[in-house]
From TrEMBL:
Gene Ontology MF, one: nucleotide binding
Species, as recorded: Arsenicitalea aurantiaca
Name of the featured protein: Gfo/Idh/MocA family oxidoreductase
Domain Gfo/Idh/MocA-like oxidoreductase N-terminal, residue spans: 5-115
Record-linked InterPro entries: Gfo/Idh/MocA-like_OxRdtase_N (IPR000683), Gfo/Idh/MocA_oxidrdct_glycsds (IPR050463), NAD(P)-bd_dom_sf (IPR036291)
Length: 312
């Protein structure tokens, strides 16, 4: 099968850690160019300083993966759709819901494939958990999402600027699993966000959720960005029949009553590109905004408290 040519826009950590190597071993895609403000090329491939240059110089490339921070994404995706390109977007999709909805409408109007990736959803353990909760119901969910900002976003000041999400940048990965596995809609009941005195976005977040049932399950989440002892990306669940589920390692491992039932190496980005190929083959978009909406609700509901100043 012929490989589809794709260009990556924004050559930062995630482009280098995942997109470039995964495209490199894909039998469905071939990296044809990069767009990098700093001029970062991949091997001997053409590199352009702006997307406009790419579209002008290599019009035959009709697929782009946008791997910038969410800030510039709305305009970049608009520009790509206007140029007739199919688009894959990194998470979180945009800084606001209005921007996201605009992109969904614009992609539809242009008849192009728009793919909103939520990488943490691409795990068998997540899918198995979703099936179990659909059958057994749910009594409680506790999300515990802790990692080091210094390790995962070294020197990236955009995460601390307004619209940069703070610890909710990784936290939205947990919410993308949560909204995928829950058998009913969930709502933010209360939230507390601790913001370093010298920054604009939270370093520590606690969220309480509810369902439409006043006597529904107990649901909560904690995100922290100062965990220097390795990552804790865990979701503890009690099902409606009393079984204890533990989704661990970012959704790659599922334990049931203490026994490991699913454990697979993370192949999230391999699966993302398989899914993208499928969407391109069938001309369909995949644009789930639920995790972003839930997070936006948390920001609307949050009590804000001051935390210690943060410096790299
Ligand atoms: P990053 O290292 O800061 O890289 C982003 C790149 O985008 C920059 O290096 C820059 O590359 C380009 N860029 C274009 N416009 C920019 C702007 N206005 N401000 C800053 N950079 C701009 O960020 P990242 O960690 O790769 O994260 C990018 C996206 O991937 C985020 O939405 C993040 O949530 C998501 N993500 C990150 C991780 C992770 O482990 N860090 C994991 C999964 C998903 P050029 O100079 O080449 O243009």
């Amino acid at each position: 099968m012929d490989k589809r040519s794709i260009a990556i826009i924004g050559i930062g950590k995630i482009a280098r850690d995942q997109h470039i190597p995964v495209i490199g071993k894909s039998d469905r895609f071939e990296l044809a160019a990069t767009v990098s403000q700093r001029g970062i090329a991949e091997a001997s491939l053409p590199v352009f300083r702006s997307a406009a240059e790419l579209y002008r110089e290599m019009p035959e490339i009709d697929i782009v993966a946008i791997c910038t921070p969410p800030g510039p994404r709305h305009l970049l995706v608009r520009e790509a759709l206007d140029a007739g390109k199919h688009v894959l977007m990194e998470k979180p999709p945009t800084q606001t819901l209005s921007e996201f909805e605009d992109l969904v409408r614009h992609g539809e109007a242009r008849g192009l494939v728009l793919f909103q990736t939520w990488h943490s959803q691409y795990n068998d353990a997540v899918e198995r958990t979703r099936e179990i909760l659909a059958e057994e119901g749910v009594r409680s969910v506790r999300i515990d999402w802790r990692e080091s900002v210094r390790k995962w976003h070294p020197g990236q000041d955009w995460v601390w600027a307004p619209g940069g999400f703070g610890v909710c940048d990784p936290g939205i990965n947990a919410l993308s699993i949560f909204t995928r596995i829950m058998p009913m809609p969930v709502f933010v009941e209360h939230a507390q966000m601790a913001v370093p005195a010298n920054r604009q976005t939270p370093v520590d977040v606690e969220i309480g959720f509810r369902t439409a049932d006043a006597h529904g399950p107990a649901l909560s989440a904690h995100f922290n960005w100062l965990e220097e002892d390795g990552e804790v990306w865990t979701i503890a669940i009690e099902t409606g029949t009393g079984r204890q589920l533990s989704l661990e390692r970012g959704g790659t491992v599922l334990k049931i009553d203490g026994e490991t039932r699913v454990a697979a190496p993370s192949e999230e980005y391999e699966r993302i590109y398989e899914r993208f190929a499928e969407l391109l083959d069938t001309g369909r978009s995949d644009v789930d905004g639920t995790p972003l909406r839930l997070l936006a609700d948390a920001f609307m509901m949050a009590e804000r408290v001051e935390a210690e100043p943060f410096d790299w």
